[in-house]
Specification:
Length: about 550
């Protein structure tokens, strides 16, 4: 408040939004950035931060609003392709950021506009806006199922040159994850091996150097890796001490050799005190760590979980693969904060503002430990469903769960447990209520799941209103593929009809994706429609 009169209104909006982010209030921060862009449409920093917050919230509509609120402002300052008029220096970067906002939702009309803007920005200035343009293009191409073009942009040598040196934190790793998913969608020869290579070269490398895998935790975890990679605080003092000890060894003498007057014991006490201070400093995070040591963020782990989940469902890796154990350790470490107050609740990192990260981590962690407040009913059903799926698939339990727990027999059959997963994920996918087959002429019985014990109940629970969970492409990797996998595990007629409907929706909206047609053929085979299944597989092969 003492320096508020020295700040401009634009600077005060930025500080207000930053304050809300530090308090884990991403919704208010999003509102602040939208208001900032209304007042100052030329603020590219505000536009970039607004898109980042919208991605964390999973709110594609907020990203669209942020982009469209400033699009005309920047269009007026475009000099044209021939540069016949003066163009703003930041025009290309603004164009690529606007393309990201337009591509956040799988709308065909907006996707074509976003693709045009991204291609124009990357052609004009590939060095300055290559990374953001590739991010926008990945969502545009995925919305139409153009997996071959996605592979070229994200996994090919020519495409990776645009984003590898863009400078955004962990951006190269995230785009490699998108490229791995595109490989699986294309269903080419060796697609699973290529996906594993991209995972190990990106996400696996981050988990290894940061100590967030099983071996890293056994060797001391993040503290040891941080100590090894941290830049010395005072190189001058370290060099002075090294030079002093060198000359003392050459010429002798010095106060360190006087051990008969009782000063040696004092020096030893001082050394112990310095060691304790250094140990305490190692446990704290500093600004210096951002330059030399960056642990995986929840959003990065979400992308890693999505790729590994897809690799597992297509039999690229087994459910007991060691990568799942490493990812479970990484999620457990990411959800622990560095609080020194001893409060178990306050020492947990809240990811309630990141719904998709909550869904990804629920494969390993109890849903009740992921949020402190009530969550909307679709998100609650998704958390419960994916947690049950993680237990059934035993993801990450090879090295982290005691062997006796792996042999406990469930109280119900495996098929019934998969049926519960299917019901929960179906409730998370649909905004309307699910119903069971009526037994007579009376109305259907609608099924709502209780928040306490996840059993069907006849009355709705007091959940907050629904909110977005994730951008279409990212959410699809979990919800759509998880639903189809659960339906195939159940195997009855109604479950397979749900899987057929999901595949039909995908082939209608993304008809260029070979994986969708292949999965559609598998579902039709289970339903007994052999002719249509063969046609679907032929369409997949031709693509």
């Amino acid at each position: 408040s003492d320096v508020a009169h020295l700040l401009t209104p634009r600077e005060r909006w930025h500080l207000h939004a930053m304050c809300q982010l530090l308090q884990d209030n991403h919704q208010d921060a999003m509102g602040a950035y939208l208001r900032l862009l209304e007042l100052y449409p030329g603020d590219l920093l505000g536009l970039s931060l607004a898109l980042d917050v919208a991605y964390a919230l999973g709110d594609a509509n907020a990203a669209l609003r942020a982009a469209t609120n400033v699009s005309t402002y920047w269009t007026e300052r475009d000099g044209g392709s021939m540069r016949l008029q003066h163009s703003h220096p930041a025009q290309n970067l603004a164009t690529s950021l606007i393309a990201i906002g337009l591509s956040s939702s799988s709308s065909t009309s907006r996707g074509s506009s976003a693709e045009h803007l991204a291609e124009m920005a990357i052609a004009r200035d590939s060095d300055g806006c290559g990374g953001t343009s590739v991010w926008a293009l990945s969502h545009c191409l995925a919305s139409e199922g153009r997996s071959s073009e996605m592979v070229s942009k994200l996994a090919g040598f020519d495409g990776t040159q645009f984003y590898e040196a863009c400078g955004h934190l962990h951006f190269q790793t995230r785009m490699k994850g998108y490229g791995g998913i595109a490989m699986l969608d294309r269903r080419g020869a060796g697609a699973d091996r290529s996906g594993i290579r991209l995972y190990d070269g990106g996400f696996g490398n981050v988990l290894e150097y940061s100590g967030n895998n099983v071996r890293g935790v056994e060797n001391g975890g993040e503290e040891v890796c941080l100590r090894d990679m941290r830049v010395p605080r005072s190189i001058k003092n370290d060099m002075a001490g090294a030079v002093g000890s060198m000359f003392s060894g050459w010429f002798g003498g010095g106060a360190s050799n006087n051990s008969g007057d009782g000063t040696g014991q004092g020096a030893e006490g001082v050394d112990q005190g310095l060691m304790e201070q250094r140990k305490q400093r190692l446990q704290r995070r500093t600004i210096e760590d951002v330059l030399c040591w960056l642990p995986p963020s929840p959003l990065l782990l979400t992308n890693a979980t999505a790729l590994l989940f897809r690799l597992t469902l297509c039999d690229g890796i087994s459910e007991s693969d060691s990568r799942w154990a490493d990812l479970r350790v990484a999620w457990t470490s990411a959800l622990k904060s560095d609080g020194d107050n001893g409060d178990a609740v306050e020492n947990k990192t809240s990811i309630e503002s990141m719904p998709l990260a909550m869904i990804a981590s629920s494969l390993f962690i109890e849903p009740n430990e992921l949020h402190f407040n009530e969550v909307p009913r679709p998100l609650h059903c998704a958390l419960q469903g994916f947690h049950k799926m993680g237990k059934l698939m035993k993801l990450g339990q090879l090295k982290t769960v005691h062997a006796s727990e792996l042999h406990d027999q469930p109280s119900t059959s495996t098929v019934e447990q998969w049926r519960e997963v299917l019901h929960l994920l179906a409730n998370a996918r649909d905004s309307c209520q699910r119903w069971e087959m009526p037994s007579g002429m009376s109305s259907s019985t609608y099924q709502l799941y209780n928040a306490e014990n996840d059993t069907p109940s006849s009355s709705p629970t007091n959940h907050p209103p629904p909110r977005p969970i994730g951008w279409d492409f990212d959410l699809r990797q979990f919800l759509e593929y998880g639903l189809c996998h659960a339906a195939m595990k159940v195997g009855d007629y109604e479950s397979l009809c749900l899987a057929r409907a999901i595949c039909s929706e995908g082939t209608t909206l993304r008809s260029n994706c070979p994986e969708l047609w292949w999965r559609y053929g598998m579902v039709l085979d289970e339903l007994g429609d052999e002719v249509a299944a063969e046609n679907a597989r032929s369409a997949s092969v031709s693509l």
